[in-house]
Amino acid sequence: MFSLSWKLQAVKFYIKITSMKKWVLLFWVLCFLTSKVSAFELILPKSKKVDTTSGYAFFLGKASNSEGILINNIRVYTAPNGAFAHSVKLNDGENRIIVRSSYNTQIYRVYKKPAPHKEEVAVCEFETPKSGVITKDNIPVFSTPSFSDKKRLAHLFKDTKVTVIASKGDFYKLFLSKDEFGWVPKAGLEFYCSPQKEPPVFLNMNNTRYKNASVHTISFTENLPYAIEERENEIIFKVYNPQLSDTSVYTMNIPKPDKYTYQVSLKNGTYTFKVSELPKRIEECTIVIDAGHGGDEKGAVGALGDEEKDINLKIALELQAILKQKGANVVMTRECDGNISLDDRISIARSSNANIFISIHLNSIGNAPMNIRKNRGTSIYYYNDNAKDLAEILENSITKSAKTRKDRVRKGNYGVIRPADYAGVLVEAAYMTNPLDSMLYSSPDFAYNTAKGIADGILEFIAE
Ligand SMILES: [Zn+2]
Fold it and tell me: Is residue 269's pLDDT more than 70?
C-alpha cells in the first residue's frame, strides 16, 4: 500500500515536472517572439548596401525603449517614442557600419565614391556681340554662371531681345549696360540673325497712383530686358536697351510702402509694374495655403515611418479652418493627397491674386553631421524683402504655440516663394529626422497648434 502510494506520488511529480518544462519552453518561445517584434527597425538608409558621394551616412529608425542602440559602438539616444537618429562620418571606399541592440544586429555596407571631378570651364568671349531672344517665360538672370546662385536680377519674359557677349558652361552672358551683366541658362535663349533693323527705342513712361497701389508703365518699340532692385525706401525698376549705347538704362524709382507686393508684366514692348499695399484687415486678405509635396512625392520621412506630405496637409487643413473663421479668403493648393507641380502652386497663387502665401513643410537633415540638440525646431524661409517681417513674426508665433525650438529665419531660394506677387514664406514646422521633434509632430495637437501659431503670426503681421 505504502509503496503504491509512493509510486503514484512519483508519477504525479514527473507529470508536474514535464508540464513545467512545457511552460518554461513556452516562456522562451514567447520571449523569442516578443524580441523579434521589439527589435529596432531602420527607415534610413533604405538599403544595407549603399553607394554615395556624401561625407556622412544617416541612420534613422525606431527601437523599443529597453534595447540600447549602438551604432559602431556609439550609444545613440532613443526618444521615449522609440525614435533615434545618428550620422556616421564616412571614409573613402567601403565603410562597415554595425547597428546593434540587445535584441538584434544589422550590418550596413556604405561605399563612399570619390566626388565627380568637375572641370573648370573657361569663359568664351564672343568676338562680336550676338543678338538673342528669350524662348520661354520666367527665364532667370543670375549674377554668376551658376544655378545655385541665390542672386537673380530678374526673370525674363518670352520674346525679350537680348545681347549676348560670352558663354560659359550652361550659361550665356548678357550685356545689360556698361557695368551690368547677367547670366541666363542656354536652354532659355536662341540666337537670331535676321537683318539688322533700327535698334529699339524708348517711347514713353507713365505713373498712376491709386488708393492702395501704384501702376508704372514704360514702353519701347521691342521687348527689352529688365531688373528690379530693392533699396530701403524705394524699388527701382530698370529697363536696359543694350543695343543703343553703354548708358541706355531707363529707371523708375518707386516709393516702397511699408507692406507691399509687386507684379511685372510685359506686352508689345510695354512693361507694367504694379506695386500694391497689403490689406490691413484679414477680411480683405487672400491667403494661399500650400501643403508641401503630396501624392508620389512624400517629402521627408520620420523615424516612426510618418510621411511629411501627410503632416503638411493636416497643418494646412487646420490653418484653412482657422483663417476662414477669421474671415480671410483662403485658397488651398491641395486639399487631399495628390500630385501638384511647383509651377501649378505658383499659378494658383497668382491667379487668385494672393496677398500672402504660406508653404507648409517639415524639415530633414540629409547626409550631414547630425546633432539632435541642434538640428531641431522651426525654421522660416523668405526670398523677397517683402516677406522678411512675416517670417520673423511667424518664427516667434509658431514656436510659442507648437512648443518647438527656434531654429532659424533666413533667405531661402525656393521656387514657390520667389514671386514678389505675394508675401511668401516657407515654414519648416519641425524636423522629421529629429527624435525629439518626432515626439512633438506625432502628438495629436501638433497640427492645430502649428496652424494656430501661423494664423496668429499672419494676424499680427497684417495689424502691425
Ligand atoms: Zn518638404
Answer: yes
**Which are the contacts of 141, defined by CB distance < 8 A and separation ≥ 6?**
152, 153, 154, 155, 156, 174, 182, 183, 184, 225, 227
Ligand 1 centre to CA of 389 (Å) is 22
- Number of separate domains in the chain: 4
pLDDT at 367 over 70: no
362 shares a domain with 320: yes
Please tell me the distance from the alpha carbon of residue 7 to that of residue 12, in angstroms, as a whole number: 9
Distance 2 CA to ligand 1 centre (A): 83
pLDDT per position as a tens digit, 405-420: 999 999 999 999 999 9
Residue 118 CA, ligand 1 centroid: distance in Å: 29
CA distance 297 to 333: 15
Q: Are residues 99 and 230 in the same domain?
A: no
Same domain, 239 and 100: no
For residue 83, report the distance from its CA to the centre of ligand 1, in Å: 20
Statement to judge: residues 321 and 452 lie in one domain: yes
Cα 301 to averaged position of ligand 1 atoms, centre (Å):
10
Q: How many angstroms is it from 193 CA to the middle of ligand 1?
A: 45
| 414 & 325 share domain | yes
CATH at 224: 2.60.40.790
Using the 3D structure, point to which of 56, 83, 112 is the last residue of a domain: 112
Scored b (16 or more CB within 10 A) or e, 118-130 reads eeeeeeeeeeeeb
Q: In the listed set 67, 84, 112, which residue is the last one of a domain according to the structure?
A: 112
The residue type found at 283 is E
In tens, the pLDDT along 128-147 reads: 999 999 999 999 999 999 99
143 and 149 Cβ atoms separated by less than 8 Å: yes
**156: CATH:** 2.30.30.40
Please give the share of the chain, as a percent, with pLDDT higher than 70: 90
Which structural domain range is residue 364 located in?
282-463
Contact 130, 191 (CB under 8 A): yes
Ligand 1 mean position to 459 CA, how many Å?
24
CA of 359 to the centre of ligand 1 (A): 9
- Ligand 1 centre distance from Cα of residue 448 (Å): 18
Q: In angstroms, rounded to a whole number, what is the distance separating the alpha carbons of residues 63 and 50?
A: 22
Model confidence over 88-125: pLDDT tens digits? 999 999 999 999 998 889 999 999 998 888 888 899 99
Q: Is residue 10 one of the residues assigned to a domain?
A: no
| Mean pLDDT for all residues in the chain | 90
CA 328 – ligand 1 centroid, Å: 25
Q: 414: CA distance to ligand 1 center in Å?
A: 11
- Tell me whether residue 6 is in a domain: no
Q: Are residues 135 and 108 in the same domain?
A: no
Distance from residue 362's CA to the centre of ligand 1 (Å): 5
